[in-house]
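Dear Dr. H.,

I hope your travels went smoothly. While you were away I took the liberty of generating a structure for the chain from your last submission, since the lab meeting agenda had it listed for discussion. I wanted you to have the full record in hand beforehand rather than looking at slides cold. The sequence, exactly as received, is reproduced here:
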Amino acid sequence: MSQRKKIELTRLQGIIAVASFSSGVLIASVCLFFIPPLGEIANSAISIVSELLVLCGAILGVKASYDVKFRKFEAELREVIENEKQPTT
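The corresponding predicted structure, in token form, is as follows:
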């Protein structure tokens, strides 16, 4: 994957994660302050907020896991290439 596509994918994941987090906070705030009875959040709103926060965590968690595994794989490949380049005596 080219560097440009990686940057675009990372940016898209970040945007989705921030949007889902913001949506969760907005839904919770609206339910807390504007929908009667004031100060009480309905169970359906809590479930929607929790699902959005789980989505946010999943997106960022998968991204972090992928980056770690990819860098480990890349380091192993470099090590193999360096070992092959060394002359055998």
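Two observations you may find useful: Residues 24 and 49 are 4 Å apart (CA to CA). The mean pLDDT is 81.

With kind regards,
E. W.
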